Amino acid sequence: METLDEKRYMVEETAGYAPSIGRLLSMMHYVRITTLEAAQGLTSEELDYRIGGQGNSIGCLLYHMACVEEVYQIVTFEDRNPTETEFEKLGVGLELGEKAHQIICNRDLSFYIEQLSHARARTMELFTGKDDSWLDEVSPFGQDHEANNYFRWFHVFEDEINHRGQIRLIRRHMEKNR
Amino acid sequence: METLDEKRYMVEETAGYAPSIGRLLSMMHYVRITTLEAAQGLTSEELDYRIGGQGNSIGCLLYHMACVEEVYQIVTFEDRNPTETEFEKLGVGLELGEKAHQIICNRDLSFYIEQLSHARARTMELFTGKDDSWLDEVSPFGQDHEANNYFRWFHVFEDEINHRGQIRLIRRHMEKNR
Lengths: 178, 178
Fold this sequence. Notes:
The structure is a homodimer. Chain A is mainly alpha-helical.
C-alpha cells in the first residue's frame, strides 16, 4: 500500500514483478485503495448495518474480500483446494449470508483492515518470482470449466470491485436513512 | 459478444489486437457478459425500481455504463473532452441522480442492451490498430492528476463492475420485497 498517490491513475509495471503481473498488481492496488476509502471512518455499528435488516453488512463484505484473496492464494499458488481446516476458517466469509452476519459483527474497522492487509502482503510475496507465462497456465475451474491464472486473479479484484460498489450503495442508504 | 462460452474464464490475447490490449478487451468482455446476466429478464417496471424509492434504478446504471464507455472513447481516442452537444446527450447518464431517474425510465431491457452493444462495437473498432505502447501514454486526468490509457480503460470496466454489484444488490432487494 506504499504506492505514491501520483501513481494512483496509472496501470503499469510494478518494480520487482514480471510485466503483466505488475499491471495486474497495479489494478489490484487501485481497487484496494478505493475499497478502504469506501469504508473509511465507519464505526463498528455502521459496519454491521444492513439495508432493511437484509442482505450483507459492509463488515461482512470486507471480510469476504480477504477470504476470497486467501482462497485464491491456495488454489493458484499451491494448486489445490482448501483443506477442511482452512475451509472452516474461510467458509463463513466466502459464503456470506445470515450465518456470516451472526459471526462477523461487533468488530472495529481495524479488524477488517488487518484481514485485508494480511492477505495482500501474502499475495505480493507469492507473486514474486512468478513470470508472465504463469498467468496463462490453465486448470479446471468448477465442475465444467477451465480458467487461467490471469482470470483467477482478475476475478479476485473483480469480486472486490463488485462488493465495493455494494458497500458504497449500503453506506449511502445508511447515511440517508438514520 | 461472440466469444465461445468455454473461453469465459480466460483472460487472454484477443485475435486482431495487440497482446496487452487483447487481455484488456478479454476482461471487458467478461464483465459485459456478467452485466447482461445481472439484468437478464427484467421488465421495464423492474428496471425502474429503486430501493425505498431512493438511489439509482438498474436501468439508470445500465445507461450510465454505456455513457461512460462513450465518453472514454472520446477522451482516449480523440484526445479531447466531449463537446457541449455530446455532453448534452451523455451528461444525464454520466451524472446519474434524480434527473437521470426522471428521464431514463419506461424503457425495455432491449433499449439498454442496444446502448451497451452500440458503445462496445465502437470500442472494439477503435482499439484495432493500436499497439500496446498506446496503453502507456499519459495525459492529464482531472485537475490535479495524470492517467495512462491503460488506467482509463481499466476504469471503464472497473466502473461497470462496481455498478453490476449494485444491480445485483438492487435486484435481490426487489425480489425479496415485493
